[in-house]
Amino acid sequence: xxxxxxxxxxxxxxxxxxxxxxxxxxxxxxxxxxxxxxxxxxxxxxxxxxxxxxxxxxxxxxxxxxxxxxxxxxxxxxxxxxxxxxxxxxxxxxxxxxxxxxxxxxxxxxxxxxxxxxxxxxxxxxxxxxxxxxxxxxxxxxxxxxxxxxxxxxxxxxxxxxxxxxxxxxxxxxxxxxxxxxxxxxxxxxxxxxx
Length: 195
What we know:
By secondary structure, the protein is of the alpha+beta class. It has a domain at 76-166: 2-Layer Sandwich (Alpha-Beta Plaits). Helices cover 46% and strands 16% of the residues. The chain has helices at residues 2-14, 21-30, 40-47, 51-63, 96-108, 135-144, 173-194, and strands at 83-91, 112-117, 126-132, 152-161. A four-stranded antiparallel sheet has the order 2-3-1-4. The longest helix is centred in the last third of the chain and has 22 residues, at 173-194.
């Protein structure tokens, strides 16, 4: 019976496409904060903690804004968007109205998924990340987007090809922070036990 089940699955999967309306609507729903829930059984098995402790801890962490929901990590490269454009800009901070307009445009730009004020070396003070299928597509949309020449005093672009063969490390930044805290705690525990 198992081979027939596998054959049925292959037949069913052959009519599906990653970017058809059904799969896109499901992935869109999965990106909502309330769509996914933590696997309590897995957490209990991995940590050895009781379900009640896990539920109480999740509620505590949510109440303290450590997280606001659980969403799956969807590979945008598998959806055909493997170019991420990173833009560092030096914007004229005295032009507050132009900054408000640019931020409103970025909020409504479906390609832009991150923008932020930044503090760093050189004169850069603004950061934007957006997705494209190719660098050519990126150039096409860059030519057609709103021009803020009077606002932008300087800019630098980088293109990241996030296709798997070009990606050397990709770890959830929250996992990095947790690992660093665990490492610090372990180091402190060792120091306390040895000193």
